[in-house]
Design goal:
The chain has 145 residues and is mainly β. It has a single domain, classed as Beta Barrel (Porin). It is built from one helix and eight strands; from the N terminus they run αββββββββ. Strands 1-2-3-4-5-6-7-8 form an eight-stranded antiparallel beta barrel. The protein starts with a helix and ends with a strand. The N terminus is likely disordered.
Length: 145
Amino acid sequence: MIVFLITSLLFSSTGPGPGVFELGLILGEPTGISAKLWFDRDTALDGALSWSLRDDHDKLHIHADFLWHDYGLIHSSAVLPVYYGIGGRIILANNTHLGARVPVGISWLPDSVPLDLFIELAAIVDIIPDTDFDLNGGIGIRFVF
């Protein structure tokens, strides 16, 4: 019974759609736990709870972004939506940072397994404590529930 349940979860073809939830990891700057909730085929909310690997940024990062997905930019037999969005981030430490994020990325949504593999780059403008510009980037994998 347990083997059947695991096999059906691994080989179901759940794609993006209303209420589909994803959970996994993002590796890069910062690195941590990544989640995504689809509102429909084209829009989703993603977020991460992560930590910076830079010596000068050993702090907890939290971000959330509203994303739009474009399935027509890359023509392939694979499902490869390009996404872009807007969101915010906070770094919790003695010197708390608050800022806006503008992520751009690409996902691979394989038909045969319930995974979302992605790579993204996010421009960041901190507004608290000082105005500052930065870039974050990472690769990740999320399991589709």
